[in-house]
Amino acid sequence: MTHPSEVIAAAWLPVVALALVDEAGRLLLQQRPVGKHHGGLWEFPGGKVDAGESPREALAREISEELGIAVKPADCTALLLAEEAREEQRPVVLMLYQATRWHGSPRGCEGQSWGWFTREQALDLPLAPMDRDFVKRMSI
Q: Where is the Nudix hydrolase domain (predicted)?
């Protein structure tokens, strides 16, 4: 039997991102590496959903790889969804989750810059387009 994520991945590129919100109501954002799509822009941490993974499983894996912290899939609440068409490539479907609980202290495991930002500070950053839309739509 085909896993639902494999069916979705054939038509779209499923991507997950996490809005980590600290006790002060600030968002954790990281800067994309120069040379990659949207290089130098700020975004919510996350990445692609691998075949056989649920979005929440992919989210926990990506957050561990990028920030060195542990989030439980059950602690990640689905928040927003966006899509982006790309020429001659599968469209991206980005699922944003939110978490207020995690284990460990965030660090840039892949050498990326990161920081905690209020919603207003985040909107002053050069954000990736879908992430800017997410920040505008969030009520934190």
A: 11-140
Alpha-carbon distance values, 82 to 4, 67, 71, 93 (Å): 19, 23, 22, 6
Single-letter residue type at 16: V
Which residues, in sequence order, are CB contacts of 70 under 8 Å at separation 6+? 60, 63, 64, 102, 103, 104
CATH of 4-137, one of 3.40.640.10, 3.40.980.10, 3.90.79.10, 3.40.710.10: 3.90.79.10
Q: Where are the domains of the chain?
A: 4-137
Residue 36 is predicted with a pLDDT of 81
Mean pLDDT of the chain: 89
> Does the pLDDT value for residue 53 go beyond 90?
yes
- State yes or no: pLDDT of 4 exceeds 80: no
CA distances from 121 to 21, 88, 110, 137 (A): 14, 35, 23, 15
CA 109: distance to chain centroid?
Answer: 15
